[in-house]
Amino acid sequence: MTGPAIRLDDLTVAYGGHPAVHHLSGSFRPGSLTAIAGANGAGKSTLVKAIVGDLRPAGGAVLFDDLDRSAIGYLPQAAEIERRFPIDVLDTVLLGAWRRCGAFGGVSRALRAAAERALAAVRLDGFGKRPIGDLSAGQFQRVLFARLMLQDAPVILLDEPFTAVDARTTADLLAIVARWHAEGRTVIAVLHDHGQIRRHFPETLLLARQCVAWGATGEAMSPANLDRANALAERWLEDAPVCRPAVEDAA
Ligand SMILES: Nc1ncnc2c1ncn2[C@@H]1O[C@H](COP(=O)(O)OP(=O)(O)OP(=O)(O)O)[C@@H](O)[C@H]1O
User: Fold this and answer.
1) Which of 18, 49, 156, 197 has the fewest CB neighbours in a 10 Å radius?
2) What is the pLDDT of residue 102?
3) How many A from CA of 202 to the centre of ligand 1?
4) Is the ipTM of this complex over 0.90?
C-alpha cells in the first residue's frame, strides 16, 4: 500500500472571517510520515480539520491524488471525543470497519477476529466487553489506535495522539505509527514534543498560521525556524482579516 499525496494549494481556513491558517501551499508526499508542529493557536488542528473536510477553506484548496476523503483515518484531539456513549470496547474498534460492512451490515466472524487481533496488538486483550467510559485515558487511546488499525486507511491523521498518555503507551503507539509508515501509508500527526518529532518523524511542517518550514525534520526544526515561528506567534491578531499578507519582518 502506498498512500496518496495530499496537496495544499494556497489554503486559507478562517473562523468568522479571521484566518487561522493562511496561504499554505505544499504536499504531503505519498507514504510520508510528517509531524505538524507549532505553538498553541498556530492552526494545527484547523489544518487537520480542513484536510479531513470538517472545515471548508475560505480560499485555496486541499487536493488529493486518487483518494475518497471519507477513507481517511482520523483521530481528533481527545477532548473532542465523546466517551459517555454506552458502547463497549470491541464495538468501538469495529466502528473502524463500518465502510466495509455498512451502517446496518452484519459483522462477520472474520471481522470480529480482526478487531480482537487489533485489541491484542495494542495490549488490550480481554477488554472487549468493557464500556469505553470505564477506561483510563491511555487505555482509550489504545482502543482508538486499534480502531484505526481495523479501518486500514491509506491516509492517517492524528491530532495530539499522545496527550495524557504515559511513556510506555506512547512507545507502543509510536511503534504502531512506524508500522503504518513502513506499510506505505501517508501519516500526519500534530505533536508538541520536539524531541519526539526529531526521533520519530522524518518530515515536519512547522506552522505559525502560515508555513514557517516544511521538509526534512532536522532542517524544518532548526533553531532559526523555531525562533521565526515564535516571533510570528507573538504578533498574531485574533481579529486579522482574511488574506492580510504576512508581516513577519515588519517589526
Ligand atoms: N471553532 C472555532 N471558532 C473560532 N476560532 C477558533 C475555533 N477553533 C479554533 N479557533 C482559533 O483558531 C486559531 C487556531 O486554532 P487551532 O486549534 O487550529 O490551533 P492549534 O495549533 O491546534 O493549537 P493547540 O496547540 O492549542 O491545540 C486559534 O486562535 C483558535 O482560537
Assistant:
1) 18
2) 58
3) 26
4) yes
